[in-house]
Amino acid sequence: MSFDLLAGHGQVKSFLLRMIKKGLLPNAYLFLGPYGVGKTLCAKLLAMALLCQEPGPTGGCTLCKVCKRSLEEKHPDLLILRPEAKVISIAQIKEIFHQISSGPYQGRMSIIILDHAELMSREAANSFLKTLEEGPKDTLFILEAPDENMVLPTIASRCQRLRFLPIDHPSLSSLLKRDLGLVDEEAQILAHIAKGSYKWARELWESGLFPLRTKFFAELIELLSLEISDLVMRAHGITEQYPNQGIGLMYLLDQMETWYRDALLGKLVDKPTFYNRDFSFQIYKFAEARSLEALVRSIFSILCAKKDLKNDINPSLVMENLMLELKRAEGDL
Question: According to the CATH classification, is domain 207-329 in 1.20.272?
Answer without folding.
Answer: yes
